[in-house]
Structures are given as C-alpha cells and as structure tokens.
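user: Please supply your own:

assistant:
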Amino acid sequence: MTTKQKNLIGWIFRIAAAAILLQTLFYKFTAAPESVYIFSTLGMEPWGRVGIGAMELVASVLLIIPGATVFGAGLAIGLMSGAIFFHLTKLGLVVQNDSGLLFAYACTVLFCCSVLVFMDKAKLFFIIMKLKKKLF
C-alpha cells in the first residue's frame, strides 16, 4: 500500500468517525427525548449526557487534527466501548424503536478508530516509550 493510499484510507476513517460523533452531539446537547431516556436508564442524566457529549466533541476535533488523530481515536475507542457495553447490558441493541442504529453507529466508530490506532501504532509506541522513560 502506498503512502497516498494509506492517507486516503486514514482520512476516510477519520471523517466517518468524526461525522458520526458530531452528528449525535445535537441530540445530547439539546436534551432530545431519546438521549434523556438513554442516560436516565443508565442513571447518568443530565451530567453523563453533557459530559460524554463534551468528550465526544473533543474526540471529534482530535480525529481531524493530523498530529492528534491517535489521541482522538483512543478517546473515541474508550467512549464507544462504554456505549457498546451499556447497549449489551442495560439498554438493548434497539433503543426506542431505532432499529439498532445507535448501536451500529457505536460499532462503526469503534471499528474506524481501531483501524486509525493500528495505522498510527508507531506513533503510539513512541509516546508510550517516552512516558515510560519519564516515569521510571
């Protein structure tokens, strides 16, 4: 795979993940009934809805910044892992007759961000080694 192809694939995954994350923010920040229902069911309304929305906003911005993509992808992986966990344990795959759309979005973002971290693993290992030197 050429560098040009790798960059194109990276941008496709970055834009897809950021677009999904940004699109759902409207519902979180405007207290849409479905968002309020989800976070009430989890016992996290309203602070969880707004806090997670803010973290998703940060992840979206970091995904688009070329030097910070791996950080945004890591944050999004953590957030989407939590979303998937709650869908599987408390919410169910279908939430208020959404046909599983929110679950599918979470899985898509998790997949895209996992690919991005894998593609930028050299940078991640460099950061880990740098931190290891400072801490130990």
Notes: Residues 3-135 form one domain. The chain has one domain: 3-135. The chain has a mean pLDDT of 94.
